[in-house]
Amino acid sequence: MKAILRQAEFEDCAKIHKMQVSCFMELFEKYKDYETSPATETLEKVQERFKQPFSKYYFIIVDNIEVGAVRIIHTGCHSMRISPIFVLPEYQNMGYAKMAMLELEKMYSDIKLWKLDTIEQEEKLCSFYEKLGYLPTGKRQDIKDNMTIVFYHKSV
């Protein structure tokens, strides 16, 4: 099976928001991060981001099923940030996020620097990104006593 990406429309914001909350709820419950968790973002925040001219959302689709989504942000002439990427719980650990990220690299072959961040304490997430060639930048941001955001980049 192959994951494909389809650019979302503004009318998809409610669906994206619902998926995002579902996907990040487990991490929210673990860390109780009311400030930065995608699980606590409002629909209006998703709509606001959607309207940004340097930002796009894509659905991750497998067998005509929307299994997740990803948002990309142009951060410079040849750089892009992924924030967030998520796959619905029932479709996780099937390689769909990896397929989506590799597809983004193909779609945006002019991009030379990819950036993202994740929770340092989530070893599985850190390992996932590192296996895709992302390297820690050294930048870290303490969110709470038990939660640190670590920043990654990948040069292609």
Structure description:
This protein is of the alpha+beta class and 156 residues long. The protein is 31% helix and 38% strand. The protein is built from four helices and seven strands; from the N terminus they run E-H-H-E-E-E-H-E-H-E-E. It has a seven-stranded mixed β-sheet, sandwiched between helices. Helix 1 (13-31) packs across helix 2. The radius of gyration is 15 Å and the shape is globular. The mean pLDDT is 97.
Question: Helix tally?
Answer: 4
The fraction of residues assigned to DSSP E strands is: 35-45%
Major β-sheet profile: 7 strands, mixed
Number of strands: 7
Cα radius of gyration in angstroms: 15 Å
Record keyword descriptors for this entry:
alpha+beta; 4 helices; 7 strands; 156 residues; single chain; 7-stranded mixed β-sheet
List the helices and strands and how they pair.
Blueprint: E1 4-7, H1 13-31, H2 43-51, E2 55-62, E3 65-76, E4 79-87, H3 96-107, E5 113-119, H4 123-131, E6 135-144, E7 147-155
Parallel strand pairs: 4-5
Antiparallel strand pairs: 1-2, 2-3, 3-4, 5-7, 6-7
Helix pairs in contact: 1-2
Q: What is the gist of this entry?
A:
This protein has 156 residues and is of the alpha+beta class.
